[in-house]
Design brief:
With 94 residues, the chain is mainly α. The protein has three helices and no strands. It starts with a helix and ends with a helix.
Length: 94
Amino acid sequence: MGWLWAIILGFVLGLIAKAVIPGKQHSPLWLTTICGILGAIVGNAVARAVGVAETKGIDWSRHIFQLVAAIIIVAAVDALYMATLGKRKHRARV
């Protein structure tokens, strides 16, 4: 059940990150979900390092760290995607 929640959280974080980043992102949905999962993992590690990993109630600070990490990862991976595979696919369609 833990993996299912990780996929759902990664999906949501990835979509929010894509919505926040200006411009159009060309990476596919499965890659965005993986980036969101990685963002959640990195955000949890940063929150743990800062000392806000566990608080009473909703862990807003941990969620902010996760979202910021997901935004950075989605932006970086989308840039890499377009630099490698995306340009070839875009040229083939035109």
